[in-house]
Amino acid sequence: MNNPSINSVKPPKSLLRQVGRAIADFRMIGEGDRILLGVSGGKDSLSLLQILNHLRTYAPVRFELAVLTVDPEVPGFDPQALKDYYERLGVPWHYEQQPLMEQAKVHMDGDSFCAYCSRMKRGIMYRICRERGYNVLALGQHLDDLAESLLMSLFHGGQLRTMKAHYRNQEGDVRVIRPLVYCRERQTGDFARRAGLPVIPDSCPACFSMPTRREHMKALLAQEEAGHDTLFSNILHAIKPIMTEGGLPEPGWPASSATGAE
Questions:
Q1: Which terminal Cβ of the chain has fewer Cβ within 10 Å, N or C?
Q2: What is the DSSP string of 83-133?
Q3: What is the pLDDT of residues 86-116, one digit of tens each?
Q4: 177 in helix, strand or coil?
Q5: Spatial CB neighbours of 170, under 8 Å, sequence gap ≥ 6
Q6: CA distances for 54 relative to 37, 59, 170, angstroms
């Protein structure tokens, strides 16, 4: 039997509006889409799961939702506790294990472990989409992530780039969406705490070994925001054109129906 305390968790209207608007603005979800959500067990992916699961009860289009956890087999990471949670939500869960840290020691060439791990996880996600018939892969990056990626690209790559909101993979058979692109990290953190979501702490030893460039960018942005409260809204306005470079895939649900918080 479903647990009412889990199923009745309703995301705040601010998150529902922002995600609904992003889905409409970037035409992320269409009729009949089968969406696979990458869930690490962190606050962002679990918050997005709750939001999408709630939105599909009144969205103007019908879509399916399932989750995938990729276990990199690092010490301390145990997502099995989430299995009952997904079952109570009534959401199919796919689970893949791969010893990414051990593989990185052999195959990583001039790359950071985080970049290697991310690339390998993405390949696994694409494979599961193909094998299981999902045409959309949903990821949990938010506006803070996009801002940090922008600074990293500018400072270390000499390019004006950030994560895209909606695009097709290189093979063209999977659409990738980021419904949290208008949301702040503190919003997902607050929601996860208030709702009592079963967040799994990040336990990757590679992430703890030294401060990453991304952590440095996060601190820099926090310092600047302390004196400029419109910093992230200004960044969002500036990066919108590069969030849709190359155009958007096929249209999704109507804007007029997507932004209301039921």
A1: N
A2: HHHHHHHT--EEEEE--HHHHHHHH--SS-HHHHHHHHHHHHHHHHHHHHT
A3: 988 999 999 998 877 777 777 666 666 677 7
A4: strand
A5: none
A6: 14, 9, 31
